[in-house]
Design brief:
This protein is of the alpha+beta class. Helices cover 43% and strands 22% of the residues. A hairpin with a 2-residue loop joins strand 4 and strand 5. The chain is built from 15 helices and eleven strands. The C terminus is likely disordered. The strands form two sheets. A six-stranded mixed beta sheet has the order 1-2-6-3-5-4, with helices on both faces. The N and C termini lie far apart (62 Å). The chain folds into two domains: 212 residues, Cytochrome Bc1 Complex, Chain A, domain 1; 177 residues, Metalloenzyme, LuxS/M16 peptidase-like (Cytochrome Bc1 Complex, Chain A, domain 1, 2-Layer Sandwich), CATH 3.30.830.
Length: 416
């Protein structure tokens, strides 16, 4: 692993012989801002579909195909109080190509082309914008039609109200409504000039490749944002909300606030989540779903860094109250320390195996490397696992507080 600043852009190279491909990611991080979410999401798709040198999606795809099936992708995510746009490319390592080519150089040249795309904002770009706008709107509309997503969105909107934690990384239809090409152009300029930018490379390459990014784009100074998480208040009482949709079975979702001060508490919260509902041998799955047959679907998710956990269950409308009580009863088992040593060892083994699986994928290694790069801290996962104990799990579980219970039902017909 090698770190270097290239034109004021932190660059990390993870040298490994695990993979026959090379993956590069360029990460743009900015403070989570509701007014900029739609532009950042739409721009992330416009950048990877056509460029100045490859002015159509077909032309770009043909170029990638000729370069041994190279692949481009983009994504957006939330990291604490920040919003991240990630542009990724993956291509075969030239060491495994018989031709005398410099694939790395050609892919970096393409990456430069991508980052400066759209290269102009004119009438032709307006047509491209309109096309991607429609696709983006369709994606957001399909999310609203997803029952689990709708229940989750209603929960976070209730729990966090005016708090930025409620903002989805992918934006929303409301934020998209008034978006213009000029907004995208302005956001493109802000990302290139004002975002915290970093580059991560994973593959069988050495540190010398860092110099190849010198001409990617130039900055006059480094930009570093504080790596902070959200601070959520402990609720004084539990909020109950209901929504209706044309569905045959209800969605029950419970939202909790979580207090975690450091890595030790966060990894114990993650272990607690696996015990509760984050695995197929969890309390909720084996008891509420399998033994009691109260749910056709159930699971829990933990965001320990931002202090948020939720449990989502698909249940028959008539079983909502019974399922809710059964879920909370299983959570109380953990709070009271009803965890055997054998079961905890099994959970820790699952966590270790999962970590190994992440490290055996280029994208997984890249995610770990990016987290370490922006936090300035190297994570020793095995050392943290040793701090997972029943006592620590019970302690953090007793600082998890139920905030909101939301039910998405089928309406009056379902109630009857």
């Amino acid at each position: 692993m090698t770190d270097k600043d290239t034109n004021h852009i932190p660059t990390r190279v993870i040298s490994t012989k695990k993979f026959k491909t090379v993956m590069i990611s360029v990460n743009f991080k900015s403070k989570l801002d509701e007014s900029r979410l739609a532009a950042r999401n739409l721009l992330s798709k416009m950048m990877i579909k056509r460029t100045k040198n490859h002015p159509s999606e077909v032309a770009l795809l043909e170029y990638l195909a000729k370069h041994y099936g190279a692949h481009l992708s983009s994504s957006t995510s939330k990291r604490g109080i920040d919003h991240v746009v990630q542009i990724r490319m993956e291509f075969v390592n030239e060491k495994f190509v018989l031709e005398d080519v410099s694939l790395f150089d050609e892919m970096v040249a393409l990456l430069k082309d991508i980052l400066h795309s759209p290269s102009s904002y004119n009438e032709e770009t307006q047509g491209y914008f309109d096309q991607e706008y429609r696709l983006y709107k369709n994606r957001l509309t399909s999310l609203l039609d997803n029952r689990n997503q709708r229940a989750y969105t209603s929960l976070v909107n209730t729990m966090f109200k005016d708090h930025p934690m409620r903002l989805p990384a992918h934006g929303s239809l409301e934020l998209l409504e008034d978006l213009t090409l000029d907004d995208v152009k302005e956001e493109h300029h802000r990302m290139m000039m004002d975002d915290e930018v970093s580059i991560v490379v994973v593959g069988d390459v050495d540190a010398s490749v860092q110099s190849k990014f010198d001409g990617l784009f130039t900055r006059h100074g480094a930009v570093y944002l504080s790596n902070k998480s959200f601070t959520l208040e402990t609720p004084e009482k539990v909020t109950h909300t209901t929504d209706t949709m044309d569905i045959e079975q209800s969605k029950l979702i419970l939202g909790f606030t979580v207090a975690a001060k450091d890595k030790t508490e966060r990894i114990n919260l993650n272990a607690m989540n696996r015990i509760l509902g984050g695995s197929t041998n969890s309390y909720l799955f084996t008891n509420v779903r399998e033994r009691m047959s109260l749910c056709y679907q159930i699971g829990s998710n933990m965001d320990a860094k931002n202090g948020f956990m939720y449990i989502l269950a698909g249940v028959d409308h008539n079983n909502v109250d019974v399922a809710k009580e059964a879920i909370l009863k299983e959570f109380e088992r953990i709070r009271s320390g009803d965890i055997t040593d054998e079961y905890l060892d099994e959970i820790k083994l699952m966590m270790r195996v999962n970590r190994q699986e992440i490290e055996d994928r280029p994208r997984g290694l890249m995610s770990i490397a990016y987290t370490e790069l922006i936090t300035g801290k190297k994570s020793d996962y095995e050392a943290l696992l040793k701090l997972v104990t029943k006592e620590n799990i019970v302690a953090v579980a007793n600082r998890v507080t139920l905030d909101t219970i939301h039910v998405l039902t089928g309406g009056a017909e379902d109630a009857n």
